[in-house]
Every structure is written in structure tokens, then in C-alpha cells.
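Entry 14. Structure prediction run on the chain below.
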Amino acid sequence: MKIVVTGTRGIPDIQGGVETHCEQLYPRIAAMGHDVTVIRRTPYVTPENIRDEYRGVRLADVFAPRRKSVEAIVHTFLAVLKARSLRPDVLHIHAIGPSLMVPFARLLGMRVVTTNHGPDYDRQKWGVLAKTALRLGERFGTRFSNKVIVISNVIAGILRDKYGRVDTELIFNGVNKPVKSVNRGYLGEWGIGERPYIVALGRFVKEKGFHDLIEAFGISGVADRCDLVIAGDSDHPDEYSETLKHQARAAGAVLTGFIRGERLNQLMSNASLFVLPSYHEGLPIALLEAMSYDLDVVVSDIPANRIPELDAGDFFPAGDVAALASILREKIVAHRATRAYNLENYDWDAIAAQTVDVYRKVCSAK
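Output returned:
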């Protein structure tokens, strides 16, 4: 089959959950013998990742304005036109914002699969107009796609209750079992590693809750026995991201910036505790990655985070800084060195096979 993919900023080594999802998924589908093209947004094509191909996946770069309010929709419109010229068997659109273009793609005669990664209109960074557009994208993607993939039962329930779509395909996000790094060189560069440290990963946007984590760390009383490290950055620097960086530095937290590869491996291999204080998620890949490193975790109790592999004592009410401080203190004092999680539901090879099965259903349907 010939598959064209849009809705992502691009691959490889581009920050974001959808981007990580696509970077893991599509090389596997290409290795199964399929012709895969991922369309990338030009602002995220840097000197480090200029290329025409990645692990068997063709890459096509299409213009996107560097403005978060219109970036996705303008790019996806142009990407659909590009996809039509490539004559795919399936166009796969990721996320509900880009799904605004599903009816347009169908009018151009393409079979469309969408993956709903979660209700992005719940993200605090969006204004009223943007949230309205995202809700419309969710509606268009749900009603007009040939097939809809959801990454959690929570999202499946939303689409069933709001739109009556009962034939969604549940395919989880995945995670690779890492080979833990025995090196610590990057830790020294960051000034950590001499004592335990708490780690958090993600983009510097309000719904990730890093401001709550920094405040909770400050009042928890654990700063004399461990460090706080936050890995990530903002796609679009704004007042919130700059304020967060100032807050982090004032609290003595370490900011590594966006990291991948050996840097991330060293950071995760040597951490004592992973924290995800989000207000909104789909199925967080960062959490699955922490679990793959056998880390003890603390997560907000939003529905998307309540996966069955976690324990009741891992959760705190989202936005409750005092509760987060309390659980940080309990976890650090207890110092649970490692944990074992059953991650068989999150195998990327199985996920690739399940996704190809969805494509086959779309192509075989009348």
C-alpha cells in the first residue's frame, strides 16, 4: 500500500507526542513493505534533520507558517494537496486540529484514516476561536473519516457519546524497552548525579503542569536531598514558557532543553522518580517511557493517565500543589529504587501491524 501521513510536525527528532508516535510507527510500517511518505512542516526542518528519507520512510517538506494559531490548519490544507498529487491508497491524518481537512481530502477522492490523540481543545494554551476550530476538527474527523483510530478507551468513549461513532479502532501508543545507559557524562555537564533526582519531560505549555511541579518541589522539603530536572522546551516561545524557565531557575531546577538519544537515555537511566503533573493528555508516551526504565512515578489523576499498570498511590489531584508536594516527599523518603511494569499492550511492532490492518479495511471497503 501507498500511505501518506500528515498532522505531525515531522520526524525525526522533533519534540511532541504525535511526533514520537510517528517516528516509531512509520519506519516499522515501511519495513513491512509499504510505501510511506510523512509530510513535515518546514519550520521544524533544521540543518540537523534535513533529509529526504528516514529509516525507509520518504519525507516531504511542505510550508507551514510559524504561528501556532494557524500553523496546523494552513499546513494540513497544503499537505492534502500534496498528498493528492502522490495518489496514496490511504491518507492518514493525526490529531483533531488537522482533521478539519478531512472533508476536503474526501472531496478530492482520498480514503482517510485519522488518529484522535485526545481532545486538544482542553489545552489551556488555546483561545476561544482556536478551541472552536479544534472541536470542529474533532467533529469532522469523526464523522467523515473512513476509519478513526483512538489511542485510549477514554477517547473512544468521547467519540461514542458525542457523535455516536462506535466503530473506532483502539490502538495504544507504544514504547520501546531501552538498553539502559551505564554512562553518566551528560549528568556531570548538567551538574546532577551526585544525589537522587526527580525528572519530568515535555513541552513547556501550561497544560503540562510544570509550574505546579516546581512549586510543589519547593514546598515539599526534599530539595536538601534530591534535585529536580525538567527536560523539554517550547515550540513557540511565549510569556508562559519564559516565566516557567525563570521559575525553574529560581527554584534551583535543572533545565536540559529538548534532548533525545544518549542524553535522554542517561537522564532516564539514572533518575529516581518521574513526575507527570499534566492537566491534559491523550495517552502520554513520556509516562510509558518512564515505565520502560522501571522508574517509580507520580502522575496527575486525569482520566488519560489512569492506566491499569499504575497503583493508587501514584496519583494526585491535578492542580493540587499541596497534594503533589506530599506525594513527592513520600516517594523520595521511601526511595523505591525500581519497579516492574507489564508493558505488553504498548509494543510498537504490534501497533504497526494493527495500524496496517486498519489501512487494509479501508482499502477493501466499498
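Residues 78 and 260 are 29 Å apart (CA to CA).
Filed with the rest of this week's runs.
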